[in-house]
Each structure stands twice: as structure tokens, then as C-alpha cells.
Amino acid sequence: MSLWKIAWRFIQQRALASCLTAVSMAIGVTLVVTVLVAYSMVDHFFRHSAQGYDMIIGATKGGRLQLVLNTVYHLSQPVENLPYSYYQEFLKDEHHRGRFSSSVDVAVPLCLGDSYEQFRVVGTTPAMFEVWEPYQKYEFAQGRNFKHENFFEGVVGSIVAHSTGLKVGDTFQPTHGIENEDGHKHDAFTVVGVLKPTGTPNDRAIFINMEGFYLLRGHAKEDEADGHESGDSDHDQAGVVPGLVPGGSNHDHKQATRAGATNASDEHDEHDEHDEHDEHDEHDHEHAEHDHEPATSAGATGGADEHAHHDHDADHEHDHSHTPLPESQREVTAILVRTTGPIVAMGLRKTINKGNEAQAVLPGAEIQQLLESIVGNLRLLLLALAVLTVIVAGIGIMVSIYNSMSDRRRDIAVMRALGARRATVLNVILLESMLLSLGGGLGGWLLAHVLIAAASPWVLAYTGFAMAAVSFTWQELVLLPALIVLATLVGYLPALDGYRTDVAKALTASP
User: Residue 124 and residue 127: Cα distance in Å, rounded?
Assistant: First the structure.
């Protein structure tokens, strides 16, 4: 009979104790494998989410990491905006060439600050889904990309579509603010496209036409001419008309109101002069002049009411008017930039950060620092706890085998009497320890991957982090030799005890 069979028979003789020690080893190995695989996928997710661009430009207020979390991962809170004119410094076309355009291949603006249910709404341009190849390719499961001339169109990520049920042709109303259920509802956008899964945070975002984003209430920069924000439908004083057309100003409205009052006054004057000419009654003429001022005020009010009604309708129908917001009232939250090369990127970053207008961030460097300083340390802590669990399970195997030695001394003595050497006894007990350790380790390894596969849809739905159902890391290859070494160490003490068994004493001892 082979030594493996003898070791297996020893395990079967104490099946319950053997199963319990194997389960404890399986739990420890499950923790180790889960930590290794999860960290590997998190590392890949963070490092490969910013594909196609090597720099992010944002306002100086706020930290570099916060800017990356806002724009790439749709986390944290947006801080401050950049003037639209600063974004134009990265553009080059036949009409304009910015001061940074020679260093830039692609520049895509982002406007943040709204949400829909628990998902972020991002204002951008159609180029967001067209210019990042071959690093990141966006494909549509349904529909198409939104068009620049269609202000109130949007595209939803795959997770958003699955969670909310939005599909091509549906409409949605963004909420002002990030995860703010009490924020006011904006005008509706129409879904024209649903993205295929990308495995990036963009699966959990909604992208709308930036031109429509600017026309929403509260998104226009304060008008420096009169201190009022364009498109603000609230009013707090008489004569201020709610629902001004985006891009207009209260100053224009006041002029229109005065014009309405003047027209009403002129019409009334003509009416009075007509009555005076027909009746030739001086008393009536004086009475008409006396009543002229109240009548003019009433005419002004009527003109203003008509103007207010017209502007209110224009505000709610601006998706049909397609009147873009003036560039002087526009802002962007961030700019995704792909430079012409790594050396150029470093030089451009240094140039931008010298000034106080904006800050340039390399997302790859920030994420690497995050992973090494925070996530990496957390991984080491969890891995240390998991390894400690494996060691404790190994000690449990040692205690279990050692306690069983008193019950099997007669069996060992019989083996010795039949010709087995001391080394044979030693090897059998070591093999028993290895079977328990490797059996529990294999069970824990399988359990870890089953748990990861089962949790991946839940993790994807709630975090946007796509965990591969079947994923392996090279560190798992270390488990096999590590478990063999551990089994040898914990089995050596009971094996030595069996090695020293006195055959004569064990055979003569009463059972």
C-alpha cells in the first residue's frame, strides 16, 4: 500500500476533525485569493479608466486627486469652473488658434453639476465618443451619438440604461446638483443612444449635449453687464420677467418693457386726440389729459404682461429656438487633453501650473500615487490578515494531528512491526498534513473564484466596477508551494512524535 493511501486512511479514521481543519484552511485561502484577485482588478480598473487622454485641465481650487475623481470616475464633488475662453486656448481651427493648440491633439470639455437619480450627468461634445481610438472605442448598443445641432439630445451608459430602463426615444429630466433629490428638475433631454459596456466609469454616466447644458437654468455664468444670470426663471421684484430666453438679460427685458409702455402711451394719445377732434369739447379734453397717466400705466402693464408671457414660452421652448448661450456666459468644469507626446505633456503641464488660471493633472500619476499610498497599504493589511488566518488554520491542523497520535500509536507500532522504518512513519504523518492543507487550500481557491463570479454583477450594478467572473493573478501560483511548506512545518511536530514511538511499549499497552 502506498504512503498516500495510508495517510488518507488516517484522515478517514477521524473524518469530522479532518473536515473541520480543512474548512479552516479553506477559509484562510479564500480570503487570500479574494484579496489578491480583487486588488488586481481594482488596480486594472483605476489604471485603465483614463484611456485616450493623458492630461486633465481644471480649476485651481480643489486638489489634483479630486479633479481626477470628478472627471474620470464621476466621484466626489465638482468644485469650480474654468472660463470658456480658457478652453478655447486648446483649440485650433480655421477661425481660432489657441496658445496651447500646438501641443494638443484632442481637447474635449466637460460640464458637471447635474445628476439623474444616482447617476452623474455630463455635458460635453459629440467628440467625446469619437476621438479616443485606438485607446478607447465607444460603440452603441442602441441608437447613435448625439448631434451638435440638436441641443437636447443625450447618450446613456450601459449601467444607467440597465438600472433606469432608459432606452432610445425616452426622455429624462436632469436634477440640479449632485445626488440632490431636492434639486429642481431641468428641461427634458431625449435619449438617442445607449453605449455598449466599456468596463469604465462612463458606463455609469449620462452624457448630454453641452449646448443644451448651457441653456438649463442656473448653468449660465453671471452676466457682468447687469449682475444677473442668464436663463434664471426666478424673479423677486416687479417688472422682472420669469423665464427669460437663455442668452438674454434682464437689461434687454427692461428696455422691451419701456418700449411696450411707450407704444401703449402713443396709442392712447392718438385715441384722445381723435375724441378731441370729433367732440370739440374742451372740458372732455382736459379730463382725458387728466386720465392719460393712469391709462399709460395700464398700457405699460399690459405690454409687460404680454412680453413676460412671450419670454416665459420662449424659456420652455428653447429646445426649438436653438439659441446658443453667448460664449461670454459659458464655463467648463474640466478639459480632457491628449497631447502630441509625453515630453510635450510634461512641458505643457509645467507651463499651465506656473500660472494661476488653471491646474494640469496627469491622471495616471495621480492614480498610481493613490494606489500606492492608500489602496496598496490597505491591500497589504488585508493580505496580512488573510495570511494570518491561513497560519492559524495550519496550527489547527498540527494540533488536530498531534492530539490524535495517542489513539494511533498501536497502528504505528503494527506498521513498525511489519517492517516499516521510522522514516516511513514520519513521511506518512507529513503526507497527512499536506493532504489536509492542500485539500483545504484547493477548496478555498475554488470558493474564492465562485464568490467573485457571483458578486461581479452586483458590484458592477452598484459601483460600475466590472469584475471579471474568471480572473487569475500570478500571485496565486505562490499558494501551492506556500501551502506545502506550511504543511511540512505544522506536520513536523506530530510526525516527530510518531517517529519516536516505542514499538514494544505500544504493542503491550492495553487498548
Answer: 8
Q: What is the CA radius of gyration of the chain?
A: 38
Nearest to 117 by CA among 50, 209, 58, 180: 180
What's the CA gap between 235 and 232, in Å, rounded? 8
Question: What's the pLDDT at 462?
Answer: 65
- Nearest CA to 101 out of 109, 111, 91, 86 is that of 91
- Kindly state the cell numbers that stand for 370: 493613490
Residue of 128, 126, 127, 202 lying closest to 160 (CA atoms)? 202
What's the residue count for the chain? Answer: 511
Q: Cβ–Cβ contacts within 10 Å for residue 270, how many?
A: 10
Residues contacting 393, CB < 8 A, separation 6+:
21, 24, 25, 27, 28, 440
d(CA 219, CA 175): 12
> HSE-up of 309 (CA within 13 Å, CB side)?
5
Pick from 82, 396, 33: nearest CA to 221: 82
Give the C-alpha separation, 376 to 216, whole Å. 42
- Coil vs helix vs strand at 42: helix
How many whole angstroms separate alpha carbon 227 and alpha carbon 110?
25
Q: Peptide bond preceding 481: is omega within 30 degrees of 0, i.e. cis?
A: no
Domain boundaries, given as residue ranges, for the chain: 3-47+368-508, 55-220+330-361, 250-321
Strand-pairing partners, residue 156, are 194, 206
Q: How far is CA 203 from CA 49, 74, 107, 353, 434, in A?
A: 11, 10, 21, 31, 46
Average pLDDT, the chain: 78
Separation between Cα atoms, residue 332 and residue 355, nearest integer Å:
18
Instruction: Please name the amino acid found at residue 128.
Output: M
Spatial distance between the Cα atoms of 10 and 3, rounded to a whole number of angstroms:
11
Tell me if 466 sits within 8 A of 159, measured CB to CB: no
HSE-CB at 428 with a 13 A cutoff on CA atoms is: 25
pLDDT tens per residue, range 374-413: 787 888 898 899 999 999 999 999 988 888 877 777 777 8
Pairing of strands 171-172, 205-209: unpaired
CB 208 within 8 A of CB 174: yes
In this prediction, the residues of the chain whose per-residue pLDDT falls under 70 are 1, 94, 179-182, 223-322, 461-470, 506-507, 509-511
CA separation, residue 223 to residues 109, 217, 232 (Å): 21, 14, 11
Asked whether the beta carbons of 122 and 208 are under 8 A apart, the reply is yes
Rounded to whole angstroms, the Cα distance separating 364 from 53 reads 10
Separation CA 175–CA 449 (nearest Å)? 40
Residue 193 DSSP symbol: E
pLDDT for 143: 95
Nearest by Cα to 71 from 42, 49, 94: 49
